[in-house]
Amino acid sequence: MALLPDLVINQIFRLVTTKTAVRMSFLSKQWEGMLSSLPMLDFDEGGDHRFDQNDNFIQHSKFINILQKYWELCEKDREATKTTPLDKFRLRMTRYSSRDASMVYKLLSSSIERSVKELDISLRGCTVKNYYYLCRTNLINAKTLTTLNLEYVRMKNIDSCVEPIDYSISLRLLPSLKTMSLKTVQFDHNALFFLVWECPFIEHLSLASCSFELSEIRLLSPTLKSLEIKHCKASQAVLYVEDLESLSIVSSDFPLEGVILERCFKLKHVNICAQFLEWFYLQGQCHDVNAVIDAPALFFFSFRGHLESKFSLKAPNLRKSRIILLNEELSSFTGQWKHFPKLKDFLQEFGSCKEMVLYVDDFEVLIFPEDFRKTLASPILADLEFLELTIENPPTYERDKQNLKDSLHWMAPALKLIESDVYLN
């Protein structure tokens, strides 16, 4: 066969699937060499994931043969292949079985040797128990990886530290990773925690239909900016995420009962739709978070942050709340209306609560002016019966104490008990 310019062969390879390109590689040594240096590889098995049809089994065998052929070509000229960077490697199996594990390992290792930037691996098979088991050795040299997409795999706990967590970035497995998408992944105990920990610069994480050995999602990341959790099999999520800006949680099929958000100083957007969610903690001096929460079973809500935050709660069964407002600047607004509309809108979202723990910096923050009260047709906290009140700067004069009591009873006319320090006695 006459030699064609490398540019022409390269253009041909870009117009056909990677499977077809492998089949064409037998044409000449030139074609073989071009294949092993392609910057993007996409092996998609296609078809039905079932093995009960003879045609499916035959098609899967042919697909494995193509993968074997590609790997042999890479091994044949390994030194040259290693020097050619790989932008993306995508492997989609629809009939994976444990017999294919060694081939998957070889392809992953070969891609990482080529300094791959994006890995997209989906290994769907007939049974969950035969999922491909990803471990530390699969990722040990993936220093250039920026995007990781995994589907239908199992993740081991990749922590290798006997001592407390090593904070050295240079020792992490995935120092370049920014985006990770995990779908239908099974995690061993703490496997997700340490996988994220091994990514010191991760910014975006998506979890969909994942399951966890102890039914808990636990994350610690100082860099994560957006987090999406959809239909995961977990009863609670505990998240320590200092830089998180956006959180989305959807849970309808499995009872996610509780969410704890700690140290979320930069949180801006929260969208939660969770049918079985019973308790929610949002801590960390949130400044101006905008949260939409649809949780018909929600019973307890805890918030620590600033009044600029806005909540839209669809939680008809909410009964208890703990609210810690950190707005020190509100203490200078005596007799003014500047913060009262915000405070009214904020507290009204918790109107169904029977019990509330409330902290403010200054007692004057809670004394609504008479003229302002006349603008409202209904109480702010219509169902509240018990209030535990903590004020950093409490009233000392009897008149101020009485004004505060009057305002509280206007806010919550059903109040039966107010617990506070001696200033309200």
UniProtKB/TrEMBL annotation:
What the entry lists under Gene3D superfamilies is as follows: Ribonuclease Inhibitor
Query: F-box domain spans which residues?
Result: 1-54
Please give the SUPFAM superfamilies that the UniProt record associates with this protein.
F-box domain, RNI-like
Pfam families in UniProt: F-box (PF00646), LRR_At5g56370 (PF24758)
The record, for InterPro entries, names: F-box-like_dom_sf (IPR036047), F-box_dom (IPR001810), FBL13/AtMIF1-like (IPR050232), LRR_dom_sf (IPR032675), LRR_FXL15/At3g58940/PEG3-like (IPR055411)
Q: What is this protein called?
A: Putative F-box domain, leucine-rich repeat domain, L domain-containing protein
